[in-house]
Amino acid sequence: MQVKRTWVDRIADFIAGRLNAQSSGYEPYTPSDPETLKRQLRPGDILLVEGNQKVSAAIKYLTQSTWSHASMFVGDALPVDPETGVRPQLVEVNLAEGCVGVPLKKYETYNTRICRAQGLTVEDQDKVVKYMVDNLGVAYDMRNVFDLARYLIPTPPVPTRWRRKMLAFGSGDPTRAICSSLIAKAFQSISYPILPDVKRIEDCVDSECQTYMQRELLHIRHSSLFVPRDFDLSPYFGIVKPTIEENFNFKTLNWHDGSEDQTEEV
Q1: What are the φ/ψ torsions at residue 260 (nearest 5 degrees)?
Q2: What angle, 0 to 180 degrees and rounded to 10, lies between the N-to-C axes of helices 7-20 and 54-63?
Q3: CA-to-CA distance for 237 and 114, rounded, in angstroms?
Q4: Strand ordering across the sheet containing 112-117
Q5: Topology of 7-242 in CATH?
Q6: How far is CA 190 from the centre of its chain?
């Protein structure tokens, strides 16, 4: 049975298409090599991406970060796509498609960064991967079209303390504009911290309360408050750079001396 589409659905599709349009002039500093990434990625790793879509510019500005998108590497958890013959190894949430599996090759022309949760067991990795895979096909909530439409307007200067809040304006759920909430929920399902709020309280340690101790309470933030850069900033995620991991040796580099490019100064 075909679901009847309303005028709101059609407007939402139009807005999503405009937001997903690529910005001109994007050029990566260090394009990703899919084969090198594949050798270094482990199930449960987060791949941060510097996007070049119109919504990406707003997210990068509001979060003061290079990263506007996040995907999770799921290894061989998904079957090979019969149409392309390629196995999708990333699970992500896209503005128009919802939760989908995509190949590593999708981001071969983008700046990327691998963030790895520390101390995960194989069982932990399986659980976070399963969480993402189980959500494949979940539709992106397009009901709040006005919340989306504001990203089509050039972002005005915004005080730093308000920028993250702007991502949750209207719906209160930034998954309508960014991708990190589902990943955050996956890690919260195994009680793994990302950027917990830390509060210090004083506890009496004897009957006379003459001495005190500091105790930290880790408060899990609501998943809707996470943005891609949080995995980069988190003290619990390590940064993996494939080139360095593959025994990089600067002494083997061949440098161009630039002599033929030199011109006389006037």
Answers
A1: -75, -10
A2: 70
A3: 9
A4: 98-102, 90-94, 69-73, 46-49, 112-117, 237-240
A5: endopeptidase fold (from Nostoc punctiforme) (3.90.1720)
A6: 19
Is-contact 121 248, C-beta < 8 A? no
Helix axes 160-167, 54-63, angle to 10 degrees: 140
Of 33-47, 100-114, 145-159, 238-252, give the lowest mean pLDDT range: 145-159
In this predicted model, what pLDDT tens digit does every residue of 164-174 receive, in sequence order? 555 554 444 44
Question: 124, 105, 103, 138: which is closest to 44 by C-alpha?
Answer: 124
Q: What is the DSSP letter of 146?
A: H
Interatomic CA distance for residues 166 and 154, integer angstroms: 14
- pLDDT, average across residues 212-237: 72
Domain limits, the chain: 7-242
247 CB-near residues (< 8 Å, 6+ apart): none
Give the tens place of pLDDT for each residue, 51-108: 766 666 666 666 677 788 899 999 999 999 999 999 999 999 887 678 899 999 888 8
Give the H or E element holding residue 188: helix 180-188
Who wins on pLDDT, 249 or 26? 249
pLDDT band, very low/low/confident/very high, at 200 (cuts 50, 70, 90): low
DSSP-derived secondary structure for 45-95: -EEEE---BHHHHHHHHHHTSS--EEEEE-TT-SPPPTTT-----EEEEET
Estimate the crossing angle of helix 122-134 against helix 180-188, to 10 degrees.
140
Q: What is the pLDDT of residue 212?
A: 39
